[in-house]
């Protein structure tokens, strides 16, 4: 497949600036609101109306969402009916959006701490998700504290998708229960008529009863979860989880497009009452769901020679640990099914959940970016991810996945997902900023920031 060049559009009256710029990247209108066009690689630009910056005022008290531990396991043996639909969790892959205004929904891909202070938890996402109004200026830590843009866990779109997914799963389980009861009735009739091997029929009846009981148990748990969520978190303000901590302006890392990469990141400071409670598991990314335990080995370890030390992540949770260096992204040490060097990657995002793909190599696609009102358009060399192939040919990402952490099979941070493009509205290519470039930049902008330490499993 030949990658297609795509564009992201931004509009502003001012030049693009780094974090710390004092000029506003907005255009004032007579209604007292500022109008910004936020770039999107997904196709047409996303137009966002955001309130003009106003003096900070203490928001009305509102409890942070305390998502319960899953009432049923997140992963279960094949053939069981357990499945908790996203996005109701606090793990990396968390769906987020601004509380105020119609901004793009996105994903928190990883958690960071500041130095040895684990009480401060920062969530990494994209600037165009957390602070679209500052896309061309950036937002300092001090400026973000004054502006106090609140972030919610799960925007309106993700909430509706999640609630609908739970309802649909409940309906499926109801059908399974009805079907298994009919099987049981038929088998009982066979026993009454002495038609067939009694021992074999009894065994089949017992199996059908177990299936019906498992489906009923999961259905009851999902109905309880559905009631709990709709009663407590139906309103966006009930889902507050923190505020924008800082954001770097969207743009190229340098004036040389041959060496430039895309800058599009922001931190969200998360409320301690949600992210410091005993159930917080830090940077453990759920890689189950659409990918079963059996499929995971074949997808992430496709070369048999690489499976010597293979172990499926405990409970389907892959720990983010370290990052992939530039040398390995250029020359992978992992192998594809044909034995040739190739890096396979995985991510969990707001829209597409768990997906797998291939790193297409560094500097393989030129992304064109144009900001109206800025003196120069800019170009960057994009890190790209392509779909896996076969029955996994579906897109690696979609709108709403921006901010997700792309990982290799060892849990190393490969890149931050920033966008995608393709033909006919489908995403053939996913764009990302490599972690080996991004992490040093983050540490320079926010001294002491580093990936949240591993949380011991209980």
TrEMBL record:
Coiled-coil parts of chain: 170-225
Q: Does the keyword Coiled coil apply?
A: yes
Record keywords: Coiled coil
**Which SUPFAM superfamilies does this one have?**
Trypsin-like serine proteases
Q: Where is the composition biased (Basic and acidic residues)?
A: 1-14, 21-31
Q: Where is this region: Disordered?
A: 1-44
What name does this protein carry?
A: Peptidase S1 domain-containing protein
Its organism's taxonomic lineage begins at: Eukaryota, Fungi, Dikarya, Basidiomycota, Agaricomycotina
């Amino acid at each position: 497949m030949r990658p297609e060049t795509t564009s992201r559009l931004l509009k502003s009256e001012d030049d693009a600036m780094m974090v710390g710029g004092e000029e506003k990247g907005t255009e004032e209108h007579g209604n007292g609101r500022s109008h910004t066009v936020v770039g999107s690689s997904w196709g047409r630009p996303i137009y966002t109306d955001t309130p003009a910056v106003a003096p900070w005022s203490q928001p009305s008290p509102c409890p942070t969402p305390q998502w319960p531990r899953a009432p049923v396991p997140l992963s279960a043996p094949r053939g069981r009916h357990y499945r908790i639909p996203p996005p109701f969790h606090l793990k990396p892959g968390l769906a987020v959006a601004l509380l105020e205004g119609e901004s793009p929904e996105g994903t928190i891909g990883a958690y960071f701490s500041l130095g040895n202070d684990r009480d401060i938890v920062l969530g990494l996402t994209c600037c165009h998700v957390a602070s679209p109004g500052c896309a061309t200026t950036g937002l300092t830590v001090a400026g973000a504290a004054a502006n106090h843009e609140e972030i919610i866990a799960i925007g309106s779109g993700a909430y509706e998708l999640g609630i609908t997914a739970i309802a649909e799963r409940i309906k499926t389980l109801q059908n399974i229960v009805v079907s298994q009861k009919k099987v049981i009735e038929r088998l009982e009739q066979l026993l009454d008529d002495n038609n067939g091997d009694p021992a074999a029929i009894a065994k089949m009846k017992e199996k059908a009863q177990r299936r019906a009981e498992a489906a009923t148990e999961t259905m009851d748990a999902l109905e309880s979860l559905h009631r709990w969520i709709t009663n407590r978190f139906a309103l966006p303000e009930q889902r507050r989880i923190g505020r924008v901590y800082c954001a770097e302006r969207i743009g190229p890392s340098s004036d040389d497009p041959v060496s430039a990469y895309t800058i599009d990141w922001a931190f969200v400071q998360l409320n301690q009452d949600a992210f410091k409670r005993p159930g917080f598991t830090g940077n453990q990314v759920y890689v189950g769901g659409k990918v079963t335990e059996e499929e995971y080995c074949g997808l992430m370890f496709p070369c048999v020679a690489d499976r010597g030390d293979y172990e499926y992540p405990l409970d389907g949770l892959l720990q983010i640990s370290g990052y992939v260096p530039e040398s390995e992204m250029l020359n992978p040490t992992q192998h594809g099914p044909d034995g040739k060097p190739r890096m396979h990657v995985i991510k969990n995002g707001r829209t597409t959940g768990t997906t797998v793909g291939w790193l297409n190599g560094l500097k393989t696609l030129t992304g064109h970016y144009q900001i109206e009102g800025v003196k120069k358009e800019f170009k960057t060399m994009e890190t790209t991810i392509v779909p896996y192939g076969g029955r996994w040919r579906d897109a690696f990402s979609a709108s709403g996945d921006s901010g997700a952490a792309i990982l290799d099979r060892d849990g190393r941070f490969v890149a931050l997902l920033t966008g995608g493009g393709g033909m006919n509205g489908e995403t053939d290519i996913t764009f990302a900023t490599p972690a080996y470039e991004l992490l040093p930049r983050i540490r320079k902008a926010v001294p002491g920031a580093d990936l949240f330490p591993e949380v011991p499993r209980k």
